[in-house]
Amino acid sequence: MGNPYGNDHDDHDDDAEELNDADQQKENDEIQEMGKQGLTDQDFPKGRPLGTFSSSDTKK
């Protein structure tokens, strides 16, 4: 038998498990900022531009 979890879920967050706490927080912040603008990763088929939605780029 193969992997009981299947391989079809590996394509959406390949490196999410490899992020350290700080990087995971940055990722969460970017996703939250994207959500505020009504965007998802599907809006960026070639990948999310690096740092576009990071909290360090936005003024509070």
Annotation keywords:
60 residues; mainly alpha; 1 helix
Report on the structure:
By secondary structure, the protein is mostly helical. It contains 1 helix and no strands. It has one helix at 21-36. The chain starts with 20 loop residues before the first helix and ends in a 24-residue tail after the last helix. The model has no long low-confidence stretch (mean pLDDT 74).
End-to-end distance? 52 Å
**Cα gyration radius (Å):** 14 Å
| SS-derived structural category | mainly alpha
Percentage of residues assigned to helices: 25-40%
Query: Count of DSSP E strands?
Result: 0
Summarize model confidence as the mean pLDDT. 74
**What's the overall geometry?**
globular
For the biggest sheet, the summary is: none
Approximately how much beta-strand content do the residues carry? under 5%
Low-confidence stretches: none
- SSE pattern, N- to C-terminal: H
Counted by DSSP, the helix tally is 1
Topology:
Elements: H1 21-36
Short summary:
Residues 1-60 are annotated as: Disordered. The protein has one helix at residues 21-36. It has 60 residues and is mainly α.
